[in-house]
């Protein structure tokens, strides 16, 4: 019985397990079954420049995928296309229609505005949205996680555009753009990139999505009154090219005008050309960008296939780059679906479980099915990496396909020329990125060559300046300080009211070197009774009262915060001017003409010359003989005694006299130089003042003078913290002189702080005052311009040219050297001490001559000694065995010194005695044979 019960239980368990296994197998079979069809949606505007090419490319790509069993393994793509009709409203409705059909991904749209709307729907149903033409940079925001871009973002394109503008040196541009997501955000990206290049968009001309020609005419006419002549056009593809047609009618496609376009123009031309080649004539000189597509066999085959379809009239539009991007987008989705199915199995959808109290839009979305594997498919798309028609297809972290940069194209006559390539890594170059990646030699060779020559609307290849003086019929108003002192720099003639001066001449000469006409009018600033405030003059330039200011305007840090300055045309700085008094004499002033090295060299020369003369004269001159003490005194005192007119010891030998002549010449040069430098030092020492510079002036608490209107007042009070009560305003050179002569005890000043050019002019007529200390500021004079004025750049370039060709120096001589150029006298301008290097040639000459005579003397002495020795051998007299003879054999050096120590007369007598002791011939014999 127990056995039967056990058998019954086992049967039940077996049946239960079999049932479970059956259902598991059945469910697994259904779940793992590869879907026969996968729906793929596409939403874009069919009847558009981009849409016509994209529609054909997408259909061709779907057909190619379905024809290749290796891609989806038998699963077919079912393409569901809807026309957005250039409307965000219709695009949203079409999106709902597509999503209702359970699509796993949506291709499109090409419009950035529609993409913003559909991205919200794609987020809700978790369907990846891949756009091949929506370039708005803001679509990469985290707000749209399911949006992926299979073309390059305008953030990338506008970086290329900013580099192009910076490459040619333009600082201001005018932007013409369509006022929608695509246009506004693209121009905003350009503005950010230009800001990095220290450039800017001066004026924006926004156009409605549907604009008429009259609006373009009004906008372009308004822009003529602006200075920039560089236009950046960022609109939708326009087969009519209306902007350029109107610009040509307004005479804005010639001369100094520059037209730059984003890739809309290349897309338009690729779709029209060669059907309408005459349209290129309208665009002569325009420069644009085109997304770069690497050359490949795959791309060439597709282009040939497209031409065949055109030839067979199967399609009516030319291929553009967005058609290639659309084709690769289909393949991107196909490869991703294949990986998804292999890893996760079947494709499934489920109803949205949104709550009832949500908004009406969410209620509508709640009826839609959500793609269960949307997030997983999105991940697979981000991991994709394959070679397509547009190159290697893979995505960056911002969900944008990694592009190959841009081609820079130029329309020249009837042809579209590629003048260079741009990438974010290498900038501009002659060769595309894929070539120099393969060949590093070509890459390095072309890195510095940048772009080929561009033909501009003027028909020339020279880079246009890109701006002109504003065409508003008003000349530039130039503020000039109305000076009442130091009028040589800038002044207004009382009779003719003509303005002239050193600064005015520099400005007018600079304008002659500017390559365009600048209408202007000088306007005096000041009351004519005292020098005006230069800070106020500069502020009026900043406030647009004056277009610029010309005069002796110092470039200071505070002023550069409000205006731009030209290149300095005169170096200046603040110096201290004080009266000159006699100073106490210096007890050791006689040592100052020579340096220490020079003094030691002179002393050594005296000793060496004394030794040389002693050696040369010791054998012939009794004045150079005697006890050792006397001879040492003679050596050290002889050279010094040559400083007097007569010497007690007079050289007798020819060699000694020759050395003496050379030494006297050297001595004459040294003494003359010493006398001249000592005289200069004693003269300069009289030019001294108790004020030794700005530091002693600050510490003295004495009154300080300054020129009315000068920046010296603000510098002394704000930077050096000198109390205002110590500062005395002075208005003219005459007031300078009176204040300095009266001194601080009589209501005057102890010193004047003034800019160097004024001081030079003041001291040219004064001898009782001088500059004390060093210049304690480094500055310059320049012309003040309004912020970001492009005229400032051209004037600066002209000033540099004036400096190079010597015109600045000639203008200075014209105004300040009529009575001789003013020289700067400084308390610390002592004559330099004479250096040893200044006399090395003279010492070398003297040393070589002395050494030569000493060598001749030694050679003669050696010759005499050898001759004497030979005669001793021939005459074996008793004297030969004398102690001196034995000493000579044992100590030759000592004997040689003993020999040359003898007087010349003694040596001659020694030779005479040897000759007299020679044997006489016998009587009756002859001396000859």
From TrEMBL:
Keywords: Glycoprotein, Ion channel, Ion transport, Ligand-gated ion channel, Membrane, Receptor, Signal, Transmembrane, Transmembrane helix, Transport. InterPro entries: ANF_lig-bd_rcpt, GABAb_receptor_plant_PBP1, Glu/Gly-bd, Ionotropic_Glu_rcpt, Iontro_rcpt_C, Iontropic_Glu_rcpt_pln, Peripla_BP_I. Residues 873-897, 910-929 are annotated as: Disordered. GO terms for cellular component: membrane. The keyword Membrane applies. Its main location: membrane. GO terms for molecular function: ligand-gated monoatomic ion channel activity. Coiled coil: none annotated. The chain crosses the membrane at residues 598-616, 655-676, 840-863. It is found in: Membrane. It is a multi-pass membrane protein. Residues 477-818 form the Ionotropic glutamate receptor C-terminal domain. It comes from the Eukaryota. Pfam families: ANF_receptor, Lig_chan, Lig_chan-Glu_bd. Belongs to the glutamate-gated ion channel (TC 1.A.10.1) family. Glutamate-gated receptor that probably acts as non-selective cation channel. This is Glutamate receptor. It comes from Tripterygium wilfordii.
